[in-house]
Predict the structure.
Amino acid sequence: MLTYDVLIVGSGGAGLYAALKSRMEEDLRVAVLTKVYPTRSHTSAAQGGVNAALANKDPTDTWEQHWFDTVKGSDYLADQDAAELLCSEAPEVIREMEHWGCPFDRTTEGKIAQRPFGGASKPRACYAADKIGHVMLHTLYEQGLRYGVDYFNEWLTISLLHDGKRCQGVNALDTRTGKLHTIQAKAVILATGGYGRIYWNRTSNAYGNTGDGLAIAYRAGLPLKDMEFVQFHPTGLRRTGILMSEGARGEGGFLLNGLGERFMTRYAPDKMELGPRDLVSRAIETEVRQGRGGPEGEVFLDVTHLGEEKIAERLPQIRQLCIGFEGVDPIEEPIPIKPTAHYSMGGIHTDINGLTSIEGVYAAGESGCVSVHGANRLGGNSLLDILVFGRRAGNHALEYARSVDLPSMPKDMLSSAEARIKSLMEGDSEETLADIRRDMANLMANQAGIYRDNAGLTGAMEGLVELKARYKRLKVRDKCKVFNTELVAALELENMLDLAEVVAQGALERRESRGAHSREDFPERDDKSWLVHTVATRGSDERPVLHFDPVTITRFQPEARTY
Ligand SMILES: Cc1cc2nc3c(=O)[nH]c(=O)nc-3n(C[C@H](O)[C@H](O)[C@H](O)COP(=O)(O)OP(=O)(O)OC[C@H]3O[C@@H](n4cnc5c(N)ncnc54)[C@H](O)[C@@H]3O)c2cc1C
């Protein structure tokens, strides 16, 4: 059996930062297990920037102002002690990245350059053209190799092992051979990214963002928090959902409706296009619903006035994606866009060190929920979250692993994972994976998307019960063991169905509108009843059971949120 002190599941920024932190203490055996090649993790797709109040562009910026912007952006649902850590530790983690060789863009004086971002009162997003995630992830991967982290690439984690009190390790499938393994570990850090793919046809997320770590934790009895809060990014490409970074508006891009009007004057007269994402996405949806969209229900992101030189220097990837996937050159014409499911505010419930309620089990990054983003995340704060809380989880896990012996393991650790795979692989069925996945995605986009109401969400819950029943009849058609991507997709789909149910249930029960959660039948924020976190655990009938926990408020009393 493979044995490690600290095992990290996921090789995005959160996982790699945590791994690096644990492994820099040379006495510990540290491994990263990832279902893709490490540098293909979704972090590499991040475009616009990472926030830190370095005050390089505006010398009056402070981390306290960043803290306030984050709490206001969260619609007051963020825990303020956690958000304080996020913002006060930001300059330090950015400098650490810089010292590891992360190639940020520079000002003329040689300082790290910063650009304005949505919902931020000062320009504080540090960037590298429009490829910040790519350069961050490569920097962390290189450093991991340097410090001797072990990598298990293209291994799919299937379940978390614990004895009710203490972490024991994981079960995982080596997709190259089709063999199941148990990996024993004193500490496991789940850093598996978000669950944006539950909106399969309308998301900016990588194909792998199926929320595996959350579903694994949920099945292992751990609570998930604030799952109904799913961020729709205002500017996804019209037909594919591929992201057009907020950096495009940060550099001065406009939003135009089908009539050519800069409609943001109606919704955020001060911040205009740089309003927070929830507000801008709703503005777009409203324009389209009221008949002011383009022919395919889109609006337009216009950067033509920035000119060829600036677009080539600051937004080269955006231009390439736009030409490649939409046939439109943004130098010459406005980009057709629609809001796209982008970020999972919800996640595995953790404390400020990423620790869950089981000793030795941690979660960090988009799969965790500390919570620093509350009901709506600000652009540039997620890459920061993965650094700050990846680091904290790594540090805490390493101290823990030092303090305990290896956990004891019963003999039949593999049996339930084996049984799950066997039931998918043996026999035939009429159901296909693609059909169930498409029906789930349509249900979620139409009934649990940007705007929600009681009837739609009740229907979504019923629809999901039906989809889960169909899933039970599903059989994988490809019977091969080696690189069986259909089997992987089937296991991912089961995860997504579980999470979709938690999202819809939370959205149904939360009878108010806050941040990204917008109920047409309860349009106001209701601090008296709903200034609480939604916490979901899996009931004995496999359906979500919810309870509500208080929000930590330290400095900023909730106020009306206007921009
Ligand atoms: C297109 C796009 C642009 C973005 N731009 C920005 C930006 O400019 N600024 C910003 O702050 N944020 C941005 N974000 C958000 C930010 O990039 C992500 O929230 C963040 O990178 C998530 O990092 P992570 O480490 O938590 O997970 P990810 O980078 O998503 O990595 C997840 C990892 O988990 C592994 N994994 C998953 N399931 C399993 C399993 N079952 N077994 C084994 N391994 C598994 C995957 O292989 C992967 O390595 C953007 C997001 C997108 C989608």
The chain has three domains: 2-229+345-403, 234-340, 415-531.
